[in-house]
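Page 47, continued from p. 46.
Same chain as before, 277 aa.
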Amino acid sequence: MLRRTFCHLPGVGPHTETRLWEAGISTWDDLPKAPVGVMPPAKLERLRAGIAASEAQLARGEVHPFVQGLASQHHWRVFPTLRSAVAYLDIETTGLGSPGDIITTIAVYDGQQVLHFVNDQNLNEFPKVIEKYEMLVTYNGKCFDVPFIERFFDIRLEQVHLDLRYILRQLGLGGGLKGCEKALGMDRHDVAGLDGFHAVLLWHEWAKHGWQRSLDTLLAYNVADTINLEALMVYAYNHLLCETPFAAVETVPNGVAPDNPFQADPATVARLLSSAW
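Result:
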């Protein structure tokens, strides 16, 4: 979709982009044959120069200029370009970021494999691992996950970041990650009903008692959040694509969801869900 995008350039808004598409300029390659009158000659010349620069940037694998130039409601367009270098990311913590709160677990899914990181085990490996990815996909990660990670590890995550909280809102989907999943009929299997509060309790049980079943249930919950992000991202991309003329040719396929490498302990889940906190 990036090669059909023009509104990342200065002076080209969604209305002008739509007029270009309607005039038959559906990709950058169509610019040389732009019909007379589609826009003033001087503006058309600036557009051609801008697209030439965009071609060079894309050839070098530079996607940040597009994200910086696009309005936030169009950031979803970069997804297919970086899908092979994506990290779907979710963290669990002991709180919302008050002093003393820590990251307990992190799950990363890159479309091929699931990676997990646990505090006091291998969490220190996370910063090096995440460096190799060029795009992050999260739910509410701009407000929570990424700032928390940056403070906790004292690092900067410079990747292109697509936050599904805002992308799905454009499609009328809200109610948090679980609300979006429920609206789309997505199954959370053995961690259905658990939430972030339960994740904190599970960590405290593991830290205090060393109960492996509590850690396994926490990781099953964390990984389920992460795996489902891919299906949500594909859904969002394809449905927003329907607002353009290119749904028939730019639709991206669904991924094959992996098995969750962790299994929640049924008795632990039942106990948490039946308790009045």
